[in-house]
Structures are given as structure tokens and as C-alpha cells.
Amino acid sequence: MYVCTDCWNESIKWQWQCEFCKEWNTLKEFREQKEEKTWWIVQKLQKIEEIQNYSQKIITKSNELNNLLWWWITPGSVILLSWEPWIWKSTITLQLWNLVKNQIIYISGEETPYQISDRAKRLKIKWNNVMMLWENCIENTLETLKDLNNKQDIKNKILVIDSISVMHSNNISWTSWSISQVRYIAELLVRYAKVTNTTIFIIWHITKDWNLAWPKTLEHMVDVVLYFEWDKYDNIRILRWLKNRFGPTNEIAIFSMWNEWLSDLKNPWLEFVNSKDPQIWSSLSITIEWTRPIIVETESLTTYTKFGYPKRSSRWINSSKLDLIIAVLSKYTTIKLESYDVYVNIARWLKVLEPWIDLSIAVSIISSKINKQISKDIIFVWEISLTWMIKKSIYLEKRIKEAEKMWFKKIFIWDTKKDFKNKDIEIVKIKNIGDLVKFL
Predict the structure, then answer these.
(1) Exposure string over 129-166, b if 16+ CB within 10 A, otherwise e
(2) pLDDT tens digits, residue range 252-275?
(3) DSSP designation for 168
(4) What is the tens place of the pLDDT at every residue in 365-406?
(5) Fold of 57-266
(6) Whose C-alpha in 101, 275, 398, 400 is 20 to 30 A from the C-alpha of 195?
(7) Residue 215's pLDDT is what?
(8) Residue 69: its pLDDT value, please?
(9) pLDDT of residue 371
(10) Is 417 exposed, middle or buried (0-12, 13-18, 19+ CB in 10 A)?
(11) Which CATH number fits domain 270-439: 1.10.10.10, 3.30.230.10, 3.20.20.10, 3.30.360.10?
């Protein structure tokens, strides 16, 4: 077995270049120590009806976090929190103290209790339900927790490991940060969580390519993998799933980061719209992040180019989507873009993967090309096909209801036979891109 020293990807044979991170000469031979099992223990079998009321769900004070975690934290689960090293991971973790009433045991291997206590005072965080331990050895940590369980009967407690990168085991000869250490420590933590019904938060970071800086086996061992998405020059933080054994993985939580606090974003549908005034090059759409409708603003810029090959640039959307929309507009409408550079952006760096903002992208491009303002009380929804037809989408009624609750007066959708009974919003049905250009 060979392991990349840069991304920790595994390979069964040695080669010059790592297949995962594409770095050269980083594969090193790895031999994992094997443990011999010398005894076996007979376990007690349980019936399903006896397990249903075994534990009580942990509900936090954050509506965004509850919505992301499917309304509660499951006791006995192992949650891996991942983000970039400079995103204030300790500060965010400290705020968990004020979000739950359960007993929290904070294991710090990087900072001393005095440093964490000073930060908690600065953030005005109460620590009545928190006990701290500075320790790097996993055996010492588990023995301390075992002694605590013998002295105090604490139910549904929460254990925070900050962070697993500095933890080590005396039973493994390799140094901390090595794959053997990480696997062994993770196995011990998962076993402890299941046996004692303790919820464990493991802190770790991701690489520049938004991949966990560990082998994939670590993701398989834990129950939940979460990571923060952020922009260096913005105060919005988005918490997303990478893995979830207890619910769907398409949900998100949106927070706003201030000097002293990470708080729920009260009106996320307004945060991604720069202005309500009519503008050239801008249009609005509604995207669905699992169950949450979010208003997104699409910005486009078209400029004449003297070069033979026009430039196509997109941010926060797939570049192939932009090429497809430009090809459809050039083929089936009077909007010719063969000699124009086209730049498309989603406001406030929200990454949108679903195809039902195609119509909004096309409208913003047309607006920039013909120099016409688009009113911000109009919503454009649906996917554009290669045959210039407007394709139907999912969650249509939810998008219409969300637009109706706000200031929008008109919504463009595909030509469906279904009759929508909405009094406060005008529904415009179109069949193809040609009809859209006529309405504009």
C-alpha cells in the first residue's frame, strides 16, 4: 500500500504522480500495524421496540442548525466538522456551549484552557455546562472520561475533540497526523460514542480543493460530515452536508458572522439580492436547497470583442451551462453573441447547481445585450433545453408560493396545463425562448 504525503490518498502500487491531487513524487510506502484478537465477548441482543425510546434527542437553540440536522442531534453519533484552518474553528465550536443545555466536555489539544477561557469571555459565552481538558493522548482522554462516568451519571453528554490532528495513541508507533494514528483514534472515539451514548464532535479541516485532508475511510467511520462554505470578504457562512446517516444531504444552514458571534440569518432570501431597483444585466430566480427556497440574483455582462474567439466566464455556476445558454440564444433568437464576451456571476458567491435558474441567466444576458432594465418584481424559473423549449421543474408550487409571499408581482414558468390559483402574483407561461424575448 502506498499513501500520498500531500492528500493522503491511497494507491495499491507506486507511481510518479498521485491520481487524486496530481502532485508528483509524493507516494510513500505504508505498512499498517495489525492487532491480534485473542478473545471474544458474547453481547446481548435487543428488540427494536426496546430501542425506540433509548435516548432523547438533543435540540439546539439555533433554528438553522436544527433545520440542517433534521431538527435534532442524535445521541451517540459522531459528527466531523470540517473547514479551512483560518475560519475561526475554535470560535465557532465555542458557540456550541450556548446552543445546548447538555453537559459538554471540551478536549483541547491545540490551545490551553486559559486561552480558550479568555476567548469565551470575549465572546460573552457562558460555560456553566462545560468541563475542559487539555490532553493529546487518546488513552488518557478516554480513561478520564471513564472515571467521570463512574463518579457522575451524565446522560446525553457532548464531547468535543479540538482537534483530532494533534491527538496521538501510545499503542501506535507512528507519529500523530499519520494514517495509522488517525484510524486508530477514530475507531476508539466511534466505539466510545456508541457504547456510552455520547455525541462526539471531531474538529478537522479541508484542503484547498474542498476535500477532507484524510483518507476516505475516515468519512466512512463517522456518522455525519459537515463543512463550512465561506468567502473571505463576506460575513455569510453556509454549513453544508458531505455525509449524513440520519437524513438527507442536500440541506444547508445559513449564518451571519460578526465580530463576536455566529448568528442565524433571519431572512436568507434577501441576503443574496443586491438591490430591489430595476437594473440592466440583472435578474432574479428561486433556487431550492432541499426544502429551502432562496432568491438568487444572476448578473451578466456582454462586451464587444475584437478578437476572433470571444471569452466566456462564469462564477458559481457551471461553465458548460453558460455555453449551452449562449448557443441556444444565438441559434433561436435575434440575440447574437458570436462577437461578444459574456461574463455571468451569482451574487454573494452562492454556488447553484440546479438547472432551473437557466431562464434567469438567459434573461440577464439578454438584458445586458439589448441594454434594457429588468424589474426586480419578476421571477424567472425553469431549465432551457437544447431544442429552445422551456422544460418543467420540480417544486413549482413551492417556488410560486415563496414568490407570492414577498414583493414579486410576476413569475415566468413553463407552459403547463395546470391552473394555479394565486391572487397576488401574475403567472406568465411561455413555451420557448422566442416567447421570452417577446415579453422582454
Answers:
(1) ebebbebebbeebbebbeeeeeeeeeebbbbbbbbbbe
(2) 888 887 766 778 887 776 778 888
(3) B
(4) 999 999 999 999 999 988 888 877 767 667 788 888 888 888
(5) Rossmann fold (3.40.50)
(6) 101
(7) 54
(8) 79
(9) 92
(10) exposed
(11) 3.30.230.10
pLDDT value of residue 128: 80
Q: Where are the beta strands (DSSP E) in 109-183?
A: 130-134, 158-162
- How far apart (Å, rounded) are the C-alpha atoms in residues 285 and 356? 8
**How far is residue 414's CA from residue 381's CA, in Å, rounded to a whole number?**
8
Q: How far is CA 147 from CA 29, 104, 162, 188, 353, in A?
A: 39, 16, 21, 16, 49
C-alpha to C-alpha distance for 84 and 207, rounded to whole angstroms: 7
**The two domains 57-266 and 270-439 share their CATH topology (first three levels equal):** no
Best CA proximity match to 437, nearest among 382, 356, 346, 372: 372
Q: What are the residues facing 245 on neighbouring strands?
A: none
Sequence letter at residue 337: L
Phi, psi for residue 282 in degrees, rounded to 5: -130, 140
- The H or E element containing residue 404 is helix 396-405
- The residues, any chain, with a CB within 8 Å of residue 349's CB and separated by 6 or more, are 231, 234, 315, 316
Domain segments of the chain as ranges: 1-31, 57-266, 270-439
State the pLDDT at residue 86. 59
Sign (positive or negative) of CA dihedral 137, 142, 147, 148: positive
d(Cα 92, Cα 89) in Å, to the nearest integer?
A: 5
- How far apart are alpha carbons 90 and 245 in whole angstroms? 25
CB burial of residue 33 (10 Å; 0-12, 13-18, 19+): exposed
Q: How do the residues of the chain divide into helix, strand and coil, expressed in percent and rounded to 5?
A: 30, 30, 45
pLDDT at 127: 75
According to the model, what pLDDT value does residue 206 have?
Answer: 61
C-alpha cell at 343: 461574463
